[in-house]
Design goal:
The chain is built from 11 helices and 8 strands. With 281 residues, the protein is of the alpha/beta class.
Length: 281
């Protein structure tokens, strides 16, 4: 397991798999160990995936200062990984909450980003959170599923802060609630650092106007990929993320939820591979 040292001395780990040009992968959660990303549905057959375990997650060390879990502070870790890999510019893929980290990185280091893929990315960095109404609207698309009747009321209560997270509504996060999705979901608790997640988006993490101004100058190609059935973000919200970049393309994966590489690996890998083969700016 390769490791490197962050600017504050924290020992960080990354995991490599696959062949080809490197693709740095930033996990979501927030603050979920990168193991859940696996080979991204077979994308590792096209690229050498370099999955970063953010500080305090997976095989990376817990920092001395918990304040460094904040999203804007984690930008330094991503830049340290680039330097450790010896890359002048790098392709980056970010999932979910990791999308905000990737946006902050691109805003601060635009010259270091060759291509950027934002997969069902949560655009907190742009001041665009997914609302409860967004999530419920997406959930209602699943009304014909056999588990909907039991799951929907509990999901509503959770969104109203009237109940804790309950595994009964996990199916809303997947386009297909099959054995692969169940196995993937069962690992979530052991992969997450909940205390770090509370700090990730805490006060001061984001400055949307400054980030928007900086991203408007990013010339690298950007792909924003949404899942048709995902509630956070819904496709309309994801499209607004694409609008923040001057050289972005937007795609919606049919029938996909928040983890599109599980729902239709062939579609996902084909779309990502095609994008990553485009000429960088």
């Amino acid at each position: 397991m390769p490791t490197f040292t962050a600017p504050d001395g924290t020992l960080l780990a990354h995991h490599q798999s696959g062949e080809g040009a490197p693709l740095v992968v930033l996990p979501g959660g927030p603050m979920r160990a990168s193991a859940y990303l696996g080979g991204l549905g077979g994308l590792s057959a096209h690229r050498r995936l370099i999955r970063l375990d953010l500080r305090g997650t997976g095989e990376s060390a817990v920092p001395d200062d918990p304040a460094t879990y904040r999203c804007d502070r984690l930008v330094d870790d991503v830049e340290a990984l680039r330097a450790h890999l010896g890359l002048e510019r790098m392709d980056v893929l970010a999932h979910s909450a990791g999308g905000s980290l990737a946006m902050l990185y691109a805003a601060r280091y635009p010259q270091r980003v060759a291509r950027l893929a934002l997969v069902t990315a949560t655009p907190w960095a742009l001041g665009l959170p997914a609302s409860s109404e967004d999530r419920l609207a997406a959930a209602r698309l699943r009304k014909d599923e056999p588990w909907f009747k039991e799951a929907f009321p509990v999901f509503q209560d959770w969104l109203r802060d009237e109940a804790d997270f309950d595994p009964v509504f996990a199916p809303f996060f997947y386009g297909r609630w099959d054995d692969a999705a169940r196995e993937h979901d069962a690992r979530a608790d052991e992969e997450c650092n909940d205390a770090a997640a509370d700090v990730y988006g805490s006060a001061g993490a984001y400055d949307p106007p400054a980030t928007r101004a900086a991203l408007a100058r990013v010339t690298a190609p950007v792909l924003v990929l949404a899942g048709e059935l995902d509630g956070g973000p819904r496709p309309d919200l994801a499209r607004r993320t694409a609008d923040a970049f001057p050289n972005a393309e937007f795609a919606v994966q049919p029938g996909a939820g928040h983890y599109p590489w599980l729902d239709d690996p062939e579609w996902f890998v084909g779309r990502l591979a095609a994008f990553l083969d485009t000429d960088p700016a």
